Each structure stands twice: as C-alpha cells, then as structure tokens.
C-alpha cells in the first residue's frame, strides 16, 4: 500500500507544513477543510476535500473519500478546533450551545476520526508505522481564563488520546496529543510554528513503539516535559498559593 497521510483541519500554517514534510517523505497527502474544493491539486498532487469538520458525520465521509482515492491513511493528524470565548471572570456565563459547538469540533469529530483511523491501521501489515496525532495545547493541564468551551473540548480530547494510547499503543497503533510550548513552558499560542509541528509529527510517526502520549515540545529543541503553565507563568500550584487554597 502507498503511504497516506490525512490532515483534518488543514490550514496554511500547521496543516501546510505537515503536508509538505510528509510529502517529502513519500506520503500521498489528503487535506480536509471548509476552504478546499474536492479534487486532486494540479500543482501538488494533494487530494483536497471540502468538509465542515465540526460535523462528526462528515468526518466519516472524508475517510471514505481518502480511501477511495489513495487507500487508508497510516497517519492521521487532527487539527480541528472551535475556539469560543467567555468573559474571563465569568466562565459559567457560557451557553450550552457554545459548549456543544466546541465539543462537536474538538472532541466528537476527533473521536470519530480516531475510530476511523484505527479501523484503517488494522488493515496494514504489522510493523507499518501508524499514528493518530491530535494538535493540542496546554488547556488539558491548566485553566486559562476566557476559553472554557474550548478548554473542555481539549481536556476531553486529551483523555481520549490517553485511553487510545493505553489500549492500542502496545499493538503498534500510536496515539499522541501534541502541544508546542515556549522554552519557559508558556503556551506557544499564536506563535505556533508549522515547521516545528511537522518535524515533531514525523518523528512521532517514525517511532518504533508508542512513547508518552502527551507530547510537549519546543521549536528547535524537540520534546520537553512541562506541567500546565498559562500566559502569565502561573501553574495550578501557584494559583492555589495565590488564592490561599490549601
């Protein structure tokens, strides 16, 4: 089978860099996003798939289209999110509709994508490099004010990846939650670097066995373990001290 990488939520930064990196390593590339027209690009040879990935049922059709064109993907990158904001001092003012919107994009669609990815992984010859990589952030480790709906989806998705890594990693089907940080551990946020993600993701795919499912990394340095740190350098422990919580 040809090597195939499917990138869900393929924007110009992370998605574009990951596509270029994996194409250079011999992968056929399928990209899914609202902004694409469905078809093969004359310039790149990549398969573009027009898709609203906030709808979990659409995710299944993206996999079907990819399989029909190239075969099942051995690498799936989930780069979808719906970043809804709340007043920093009033997180419970968010609506149930907002929670559902963020959850459908960041968790429900990821769950379906992981199911479909695993189904494809199991068709490969043992030893074939396979990986499902969720583009995450620090919100699974610390509550950053103002983004409750977004954070709940990311936190639940991190748990999804942990469950999958524990269950299937020993069989060679790898699952990772990837989170770029600044060198001091603070979130990379708008400074997220596409090339750094691409380099890290290819390394994860090439690992011979499942390593730690939570991948925090720094551009130019690779993997480094961090706890949750917000934009002001606060951690859960420092917040407890700040608010006098024993």
Automatic annotation (TrEMBL):
InterPro entries: NAD(P)-bd_dom_sf, SDR_fam
Statement: the UniProt record of this protein carries the keyword Oxidoreductase: yes
Molecular-function GO terms, alphabetical: oxidoreductase activity
A Pfam family this chain is assigned to: adh_short
Keywords noted in UniProt: Oxidoreductase
Sequence intervals crossing the membrane: none
Protein family per UniProt: Belongs to the short-chain dehydrogenases/reductases (SDR) family.
Protein name, as recorded: Ketoreductase (KR) domain-containing protein
